[in-house]
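haha ok so turns out i had the wrong file open the whole time. this is the CORRECT one, sorry everyone. sequence first:
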Amino acid sequence: MRIGIIDFDSTQVNLACMKISAYYKRMGCDVVLNPTSASQADHVFCSVVFSWNKEQALKLASVFPSIEFGGTGVDIHKKLPADIERMRPDYDLYSADMIARRLRGIMTSDRRREKAEVIVNAGVGRTSTGCSRSCSFCIVPSSEGKLKSVGSLAELVNPKSKVITLLDNNLTADPDCLEKLKQAKEMGFTLDITQGIDSRIIAKRPDIAKALSEVKHLRSIHTAWDLMESESLVSEGIRVLSRFIAKSRQLVFMLTGFNTTFEENMYRFRRLLEMGVDPYAMRFRGGDGCGDEYDKLQNMHFSRWVNGRLYKKCNFGEYTNWLVAEKKYFDSLAQPLLLAA
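then structure:
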């Protein structure tokens, strides 16, 4: 039997796809990643991570008569069958060339290839599921429930590498966090903590901040300031973390477009710069965000201005792309009035 696996919109590798591949290869099936025609596979599994891609992904049903959709972008409650969930990932599913094409940012082709090699050779998985918080903008409480331990770091190791891509939603909230960081240090693992560090917890747990500083990290340490009311704890968390980890090694995500105004987004951006850490704007693209079309347009350009580090060259009010987009927006509103006149 030929199994097709379509990784519709992952930014790097997809753990569910890797486990499905491992399961069916063990069953003796041939596995094809991202088939382009029905003749390549007898049955197809398609993973969709982001909800805004759902409509486009579902069109694949017209290409593949036997296709099964999954992932948080389609159904946040759908889970892998237990016998597939237990599988170790198929680390041969992705090639470095494919990952290199997915990498964002400006870099040389050699550097892009080097980063891709690290990613495909890394172990990937999670030691816990769920989260101890219930943030209104997040799907984790609905899809995974409360935080629960499911394994150890040692179980995630890929023999090809000492790097582990850790997908835990909130490592710092895990009661076993310190023990896991100690294990990473003792075994010489390099961690890529994809979901970030909860600075509100760090504010009260300098021991965790210290343990984080004793572990090798693949990238900068990621924290977040999502809600205005979290300012005090987030600021303290950054202060505590900075006692152990250089501010130049910290990146703070700012959720925008959910329940904050442009003025509040700009305030958080400026406060983070004042604290000496690097801000990164994360646009909310779910169905319950705030603002009209103008707000969404402004938020999009604000994100580009922040994330492209264009604020180092000009103020937002002088940002040419935004000025052009704003003018087009108001011109489009004025056009019907001119026609009516």
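The chain has a mean pLDDT of 93.
again sry for the mixup
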